[in-house]
TrEMBL record:
Regions crossing the membrane: 43-62, 83-102, 114-131, 192-213, 254-273, 331-350, 370-390
Species name: Colletotrichum plurivorum
Keyword list, A-Z: Membrane, Transmembrane, Transmembrane helix
Protein name from the UniProt record: Uncharacterized protein
Highest rank taxon of the organism: Eukaryota
Length: 405
């Protein structure tokens, strides 16, 4: 109980800070306050919030499963295979790296293309999970009636695949917010709208999967394992750490631990509302400014706007000198430091997925499935295109990054 309370407190702290920050942003926008100190806080709060989040995630994932049994199970390759995970890690690393560099220059870096590729893989995984959930559906043989209620049994999606898929889906989902703080993406109204809709679908599906997992609606397929003539005791349920200890069993601690996850899910919903509201509001302004070569006005992001060298940009970014009358081409490529928070949350879910996969035992080697190949190809093509844009910026348009090169 003490561990559950400490986990709940840490997640509640993150949720509280985000509520305060989102409310502050709304109040600033509503009142039209333009003071430098206010905008400095609005700009650098994500940096401190990201550091706090990384510390909390590290502490929560460091906990050990205290059960004296093993939960060896097979994972569906199209959901948690190495190709799927490698593509997500690669896209996340490149997005964060380019966003960090884009804070100090104003040229295109290819984040828009990488974000589109991530949206494709995210939608593909969501569809794969939905198809597996509905293939068999609840059948007469698999369904049991208890106390007047019908329990579901999604026979084609195991509990391990469901919770692992939810973790990976959540990681992709929040990573989709990173391109939404890039001016090239914001200037593309249709891409912003599609990415926000993809996020909404993925977030709802993540909650559905977690709920059904906690209720024990997914079948558990655990295998016995032998090593050196010693037979390991097999658990009767799955237990994974994802902010709280989630279990599909009926033990007395299962429901309280799910409470920790639902507080995190509330945090995720608010984070989605924060990123999508900024993106949907600003995309029309950025699109109009790019198309008609107009100045950017009334954007909700604090900005460093002067056309300076890289080192001057770093110095001005620290001192923060805002302006609300800047041409699109001179506006920083990365328009907000919130990508630090999005990256922290994304990597937290992906690290939880890797931890869960380790607890499921060593997976048998097999050829890459169609889903894995598709994910790797999409990620590779979009990352290469993004790197091509970046190399072009460095080698051809040196003025765009001043002394950076």
């Amino acid at each position: 109980m003490a561990e559950r309370n400490s986990r709940l407190a840490m997640v509640a702290v993150l949720l509280s800070f985000l509520v305060i920050f989102f409310s502050f942003e709304f109040a600033v926008k509503k009142s039209g306050i333009q003071k430098g100190m206010v905008k400095t806080f609005q700009q650098f709060f994500p940096f401190g919030f990201g550091i706090l989040g990384m510390i909390i995630v590290s502490v929560l994932l460091a906990s050990r499963n205290d059960r004296d049994c093993f939960q060896f199970t097979k994972i569906e390759a199209d959901i948690g295979g190495p190709g799927i995970r490698i593509s997500i890690w690669a896209q996340g690393v490149v997005l964060l790296a380019m966003s960090g560099i884009g804070t100090f220059h104003s040229k295109a870096t290819g984040i828009k293309e990488i974000g589109a590729g991530l949206a494709i893989t995210h939608l593909s995984l969501a569809i794969a999970l939905l198809v597996e959930m509905n293939k068999g559906g609840p059948t007469e043989e698999a369904s049991t009636e208890q106390n007047g209620t019908m329990s579901k049994d999604f026979r084609n999606l195991t509990a391990a695949d469901a919770i692992l898929g939810a973790m990976i889906l959540d990681s992709q989902n929040v990573a989709l917010s990173i391109p939404l703080v890039n001016k090239e993406t914001l200037a593309s109204r249709w891409q912003v709208l599609i990415m926000v809709l993809c996020q909404a679908l993925g977030l709802v599906l993540t909650g559905v999967l977690a709920r059904f997992f906690g209720q024990g609606d997914f079948p558990v397929e655990l295998s016995h394992s032998k090593r050196s003539n010693e037979t390991y005791e097999t658990c009767d349920s799955l237990r994974v750490v994802w902010w709280g200890w989630l279990s599909n069993g009926k033990d007395k601690d299962a429901i309280p631990q799910m409470t920790v996850f639902w507080v995190y899910f509330a945090f995720r919903c608010l984070l989605f509302a924060q990123s999508s509201s900024h993106a949907l509001y600003n995309t029309w302004i950025f699109h109009d400014a790019e198309k008609h070569h107009k100045a950017l006005r009334r954007v909700t992001f604090p900005s460093l706007v002067e056309d300076l060298s890289f080192y001057e940009r770093v110095r001005r970014r620290i001192k923060f000198k805002p302006s609300d009358n800047t041409e699109f081409k001179r506006y920083p490529t990365t328009v907000s430091l919130m990508y630090i928070v999005y990256g922290m949350v994304s990597w937290g879910s992906l690290a939880a997925a890797e931890t869960a996969l380790t607890s499921f035992g060593e997976q048998a080697e097999h050829d890459f499935s169609v889903g894995q190949v598709s994910a790797v190809v999409v990620a590779s093509v979009t990352i290469l295109r993004g790197l091509w844009f970046f190399s072009r910026m460095v080698l051809v348009d040196r003025d765009g990054i001043g002394c950076f090169c």
